[in-house]
Design goal:
Order of helices and strands: EEEEHH
Largest sheet: 4 strands, antiparallel
Radius of gyration: 17 Å
Low-confidence stretches: none
Strand content: 25-35%
Number of helices: 2
Helix content: 40-55%
Mean pLDDT: 83
Length: 115
């Protein structure tokens, strides 16, 4: 399993629900996982894999609603996959911080904002 990238997604009409998506290369295909729902799919490229995962997520949520199982939809993936997800995210944040840090001496730090 070779990590490709980590993404944060959402569902159009449920914007407050953040989905953690991990893309990896395995056996010549792109495997994409929604770590929050323990759902995965694959495709020949990233776009195909993400489209397939979108279909799986919609089917998963439709089924949960039909079965009255909404309270059980969050089924987080195992810790090792979360670690793989966080590594590129932290590396990207570190690179962005290093770039922004160059401007601190000119702009200063004005305010801390919490999400």
């Amino acid at each position: 399993m070779k990590p490709i990238k980590a993404l944060i997604g959402s569902i159009e009409n449920i914007p407050f629900l953040r989905l953690h998506i991990l893309l990896t290369k395995e056996d010549g295909v792109v495997v994409v996982r929604c770590l929050d729902f323990s759902i995965s799919s694959h495709g020949e490229n990233e776009e195909d894999a993400l489209d397939s995962l979108s279909d799986c997520i919609m089917d998963y949520l439709d089924y949960a609603v039909e079965q009255g199982a909404i309270d059980n939809i969050i089924d987080q993936e195992e810790d090792s996959l979360w670690e793989i997800f966080r590594k590129p995210e932290l590396e990207d944040a570190s690179l962005k911080f290093k770039e922004e840090a160059k401007t601190f001496k000119f702009k200063g730090i004005k305010k801390v904002i919490y999400a």
